[in-house]
Design brief:
This protein is α+β, with helices and mostly antiparallel strands. It has three domains: about 210 residues, no CATH class; about 110 residues, no CATH class; about 160 residues, no CATH class. It has 15 helices and 26 strands. A ten-stranded antiparallel beta sheet has the order 2-3-4-5-1-10-9-8-6-7. The chain has a six-stranded mixed beta sheet with strand order 19-26-25-24-23-20, with helices on both faces. It has a five-stranded antiparallel beta sheet with strand order 11-18-17-16-12. The protein is globular and about 90 Å long. The N and C termini lie far apart (about 70 Å). About 30% of the residues are buried.
């Protein structure tokens, strides 16, 4: 087989609910159908899209500057789809721009990734395509100079979604290298004698669960890309909003990125609107008589939330849709909308995360008063002023550390000389993730650097100074979250915030710290 001509193939698996070519293709009537000699059209057929040669647009750059025009350069966009039925399943082989001819609503979304993971040597991964869901969604493709394990790529399996992978194949039949995401990509000496064998092997790889031995975590969180499912989930969201059939713990608004809250004056829903201290979906909805007609997905994506700074300046803005955080359960599956993206969360993973969160200690060594201020720094000062014998204010006392101009806030309050309290108003996953990592960073420096501790001591009264050697087990890191939701602190955390917190929780416990959560009521 190695001497035969190999073709670079791109193969999709069509889902089991699809039983006709008209569903597999976006517009089959606009395509040319090519049947095979002595073959049933239901078993194998090729569709192509006619194309006309066109001159590249960059050729115009040379008009009027050359002695003779460039007239013999042309491009042509070819596109073809080979549809094969094998083992009662349809496969789509795309060539050129053939992917654009497919109706991706009927494609098995995890086919390529699962086939690749079941075929790749776990220690010979070449590149990975990931999305990070920690604060803002970030997409990146990482490759190494030599093959290695996923750990060599610095991937965090608690926060990163694996979208695609390339590596050395351990299946000689499928070739030396294989890639997979929605489709599977491989070099293969395709003939119409071995086509059925290839389809059988790919289907076998897709159904195999061997990948869970090394890559079980890939099923924890998956971004939804199938338009039909997204539309179905959006329809459910619209229905919930129109009937106001939601509670703030399952549907709430939060800005989708980290911002500088020092510049914050308020939110607006239009430039002529009054400043608002917080964003609330109930405040943004049309009147009862208009809600049925006006509220749709286009309205959600056009309606803006403005982030207002000093002097009424608009510092940033986001669509209402991008600010919605919503959890939906359908047919025993859990879906989350955050940052304008839908994710499917493995049910067992949801259960394990919630189980770990339930084990986290709730802080009870101090009774925090109700939050009635407009700003967190005002609240922190109130707590200090009323409890000076057991509390010291560290808010805004930044410590320059690290040789540059990096400024680190040790914490907001120190209570009982041993409890490092970090306080943040609940404004969504991005703000909470920032809070958790800030707390972990200061705790790490406190434990590892005598110089850092000296700089902290400069802000403290003499009888509050930390004396060397310090032991982490003598101290507690407390994350205090301000919220108006009438629920337990563990119940109001968004799912991705729970994931971020658990990672920090493990890290701080490994250092030796006690770690706890507490809710401050508004």
């Amino acid at each position: 087989m190695s001497r035969e001509k190999k073709y670079r193939l791109c193969v999709y698996l069509i889902n089991e609910n699809c039983n006709k070519h008209e569903d597999i293709l976006k517009n089959s009537l606009a395509l040319i159908q090519h049947t095979f000699k002595n073959k049933n059209i239901e078993d194998i057929v090729v569709y192509t899209k006619s194309s006309k040669p066109y001159m590249p647009i960059w050729v115009k750059l040379f008009d009027n500057v050359l002695e003779a025009k460039i007239e013999d350069l042309f491009n042509s966009s070819s596109a073809a789809v080979l549809i094969v039925k094998d083992n009662k399943r349809y496969f789509a082989f795309t060539f050129g721009l053939g992917r654009n001819l497919l109706n991706l609503d009927f494609v098995e979304e995890s086919f390529g990734l699962r086939v690749a993971l079941n075929s790749i040597d776990p220690d010979k991964v070449r590149s990975i395509d990931i999305k990070n869901i920690d604060t803002v969604l970030r997409h990146s493709k990482i490759q190494t100079s030599q093959a290695g394990s996923v750990d060599d790529f610095g991937m965090n399996i608690d926060r990163d979604i694996l979208n695609g992978v390339t590596g050395k194949s351990n299946d000689e039949f499928l070739g030396k290298t294989i890639s997979g995401s929605m489709a599977v990509y491989l070099s293969f000496p395709l003939t119409f004698d071995n086509l059925s064998l290839l389809c059988e092997r790919l289907l076998e790889k897709y159904r195999d669960e061997k990948y869970k031995e090394n890559f079980a975590w890939v099923d924890h969180v998956r971004e939804i890309k199938i338009e039909g499912l997204i539309n179905k989930l959006n329809d459910g969201l619209i229905d919930v909003i129109k009937h106001k059939n939601f509670e703030r713990e399952t549907l709430f608004l939060a800005i989708p990125q980290v911002v500088n809250w020092e510049q914050f004056e308020g939110f607006k829903y239009s430039e002529s609107d009054e400043l608002k201290e917080d964003i609330n979906i109930e405040d943004m909805l049309p009147s009862e008589g208009e809600i049925e007609e006006k509220v749709n997905i286009l309205w959600l994506k056009r309606k803006e939330i403005l982030f207002i700074g000093k002097d009424e300046q608009i510092l940033d803005s986001w669509s209402l849709y991008k600010c919605i955080n919503y959890e939906s359960k359908q047919e025993k599956e859990t879906y989350l909308l955050t940052g304008g993206k839908w994710f499917k969360i493995d049910t067992d993973y949801v259960g394990s995360v919630n189980s770990e969160i339930d084990k986290v200690k709730e802080y009870n060594r101090f009774n925090f008063p109700k939050y009635e201020e407009k700003r967190e720094d005002e609240y922190n000062k109130k707590v200090y002023d009323n409890n000076k014998t057991v509390c010291f204010l560290m808010d805004k006392k930044n410590i320059v550390y690290g040789g540059g101009q990096s400024k680190i806030e040790f914490c907001d309050l120190i209570i009982h000389k041993t409890d490092f309290v970090h306080i943040k108003r609940f404004r969504g996953s991005s703000a909470l993730s920032h809070l958790f990592f800030q707390g972990a960073n200061s705790a790490r420096l406190f434990l590892s650097s005598a110089d850092f501790r000296k700089k902290v001591n400069k802000h403290l009264p003499t009888d509050w100074h930390f004396k060397d050697p310090v032991k982490a087990l003598d101290y507690e890191v407390v994350f205090a979250i301000i919220s108006k939701v009438r629920k337990n602190i563990k119940d109001i955390l968004p799912f991705f915030s729970k994931v971020s917190f658990l990672q920090i929780h493990v890290q701080l416990q490994l250092y030796g710290y006690k770690v706890s959560l507490v809710k401050i009521n508004m």
